[in-house]
Write a structure and sequence with these properties.
- This protein has a five-stranded antiparallel beta sheet with strand order 4-3-2-1-5, with helices on one face.
- The chain has 199 residues and is of the alpha+beta class.
- Helix content is 52%, strand content 16%.
Length: 199
Amino acid sequence: MKSEGNPPSRGFVADALISGLLVVIPVYLAVLLLLKAMQSLVGLVRPLAALLPDWVPAEDLLSLLLVLVLCFLVGVALRTRIGRAARERIEKSLFQRIPGYALFRGLAQQVSGESRESTWKPALVETGDGLVPGFIIEELDDGQYTVFVPSVPTPLAGAVLVIPRERVHALNVPFTSAIQVVSKWGSGSKALVAAMKAK
């Protein structure tokens, strides 16, 4: 009798689709915004681009350079006391209302090493099947933890669990190291286990 492979489950298809969207959509939007900004600056750089040889895509290169310079200057301004205050005011009045903004902002800060908060702290979480890499999102009043357990190999998709403190082992490892373990299908997990045992 000929055996037939089981078709992929509906849950697997949905998880794969969501994981793909979480990667593709931010990249697509970032590229779209970059191109739009470059187009809006073409008029400014056209006189300077006319001075360069025709074989050089001067308008595109100068527009891209100008956008990057503007981003750099905005980033420098936001590091000042006035800039930080303005950013916090804008975030509270506008960006915090966008679904998922706070989550992705916290994630971006952890990746860049700017955040000193306890959210997204790497951990090994005890489940029925063993230890899984995860991240502590918050501590509840009763001592339990809210943890995020990412799906392999997509760190931004996964499950949220509320779990007793004794089953959550916080790790003193960089956030990026834990993300790499997830994105590399578990390769490097021995460093996480070693950090747990050392604690």
